[in-house]
Amino acid sequence: MSGPPVTFDRLSTDGAARRGRLTTPHGTVETPVFMPVGTRGTVKALGPDDLASVGAEIVLGNTYHLLLRPGPELIRDLGGLHRFMAWDRAILTDSGGFQVWSLSKLRKITEEGVTFRSPIDGAEHFLSPERSVEIQAALGSDIVHPLDECLAYPAGHADAERSLDLTLRWAVRARRAYRAGAGGRQALFGIVQGGAFDDLRRRAATDTVALGFDGYAIGGMAVGEPKPLMHDLIELTASLLPADRPRYVMGVGKPEDLVEAVARGVDMFDCVLPTRNARNGQVFTADGPLVIKHAAHARDPKPIEEGCACYACRTFSRAYLRHLFVAGELLAYRLLTLHNLQFFLGLVRAMREAIVAGRFAAFRTRFFERYRVSSPVEVSLDDAGGP
What we know:
Elements: E1 7-14, E2 17-24, E3 27-31, E4 33-35, E5 37-38, H1 48-53, E6 58-61, H2 63-68, H3 72-77, H4 81-84, E7 90-93, H5 97-103, E8 107-109, E9 114-117, E10 124-127, H6 129-139, E11 143-144, H7 157-182, E12 187-192, H8 198-211, E13 215-218, H9 227-239, E14 247-249, H10 255-263, E15 268-270, H11 273-278, E16 282-285, E17 288-291, H12 311-315, H13 318-326, H14 331-356, H15 360-370
């Protein structure tokens, strides 16, 4: 009998922080890991060679968007998502539930699933737990998720409990479809919901773990709740999940959120922030974000960040990058995106090293002593992988 499609090994711990390794059919993934978001089968502005150059080992594909265009059957017939986007490393796909909730104004949720209209052409689609698993099987991703319902903050206890009950029933159906053979060589992660309520998060974790999944995602984070509450909910939920399975916080987040979540025992993250904000002129540094289009950079000969190994920092000045961005040159999007992903992937790499050295607490302290949080720039919502 063959082993599980994805395995997870904890290599080191430092407090609650964990250093691990995922082994997938498309290579190993070192954790903690940040996953660039490849919404429609591409990480915006970058090619697979760019992703490899910054050390990406896994990317996220979006079930909702790939369902709408070009369609999972076409991708399956052309060899699966790995071949379709020429990415030979690991891919994780979400269930499509978050995008149905956040992007589809015309939708109807029933026990059977959710009916929604495409924002592209108005065509009606139906997504059930079984159909979501079927779509992800056609895509051929390494890690898949069951359909869930994500609520905005704030939601009352009764609404959160009703939503959780539905998500749990859908998880049972998705697990059944997966075990019937739709999953193939894929790993299935369960999603823990429960809103902003400790008792519901506890029940969600207990009941989801009881179903038995290859890993566990913490859903419903960064949907409008205050940061301290998000951190508390992540800490509570992570503490209730099996120590020998990977833990993934969906749609999170900012650099400071990654550090706080790793401190609470989380292994995996995704967010559109580094790619989306790059296209709006914001880049990340060890001192905090800066906006490259500001006039202060018009004659600045320095790179975005001294010592950064990305192509943009090795080659170009802030002045040149600002010129590209202000002039509307497409190269600006590639270069700024490369830098931001280099920063995010470098951050998780540094956390892995700190955990192994038993110095994660000191790393966390130094990070927050230096990193300056700033207000967000204006952004476009065309990525839609997460908040």
